[in-house]
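Sequence in, structure out.
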Amino acid sequence: MIEAEIAGAPRKDAPQDMRGFVGMAFRVQPHGSRFECFFLRPTNGRADDQLRRNHSTQYISYPDFPWYRLREQTPGVYESYTDLVPGAWTPIRIVVSGIQAQLYVNGAEQPCLVVNDLKLGESQGQIALWIGAGTKAYFSTVVVK
């Protein structure tokens, strides 16, 4: 289990389509060659566009399963909505067991995103702080159990 408080928002110089991507990578292989990751798009959480809201949380598996491949091949399966505020501290919890992972946000009792087929299979590795392009991000109280 990984717990952390994270905050993210687009940098002032970021392009208009940047969302402030911030999250945690897990099962990171040597030199970051492969990893699984859950991340948030804070500016999507309260967007006026419902489809954009539905892209508030995301799972990826680098390098073979980036967000755009997963969205194109399996729409709605690896991303979901959760209420987010750009720049606000947001507690997250990631629970990984075998080939399943769950993302909990803001102390929710139920996960907002469930992945039943982690792309790296049953593997082990390190954890890492993950920040996307054009993002200003902060991390606090990272706990691994």
